[in-house]
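Revision sheet: structure tokens.
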Amino acid sequence: QVQLVESGGGLVQAGGSLRLSCAASGRIFSSYAMGWFRQAPGKEREFVVGISWTGGSTYYADSVKGRFTISRDNAKNTVYLQMNSLKPEDTAVYYCNTDPSEPVLAWGQGTQVTVSS
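Predicted:
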């Protein structure tokens, strides 16, 4: 079974940057389209950004377009999320998982991102 471990979150001021990583165990990782999700306090988890299994296609929610960049390294079984120009409304716990079009994997513990104004 694939396990997902997110890291790289933290506290940052508005306008700052963070780079999140999601390490996956299991060789099956490279066959999945992957995505990053986030859940803010009191809100449902939402899909933020996705990447095809080859890394050749990416897609972004309007709220993060132009600020966030997703990438992956299948040799390292890792997906990354570069977040720039962070806003207080980006504050959430961030999770990685398969793209919503794929079978969902077990959720990891997530990584907290807090953006202060």
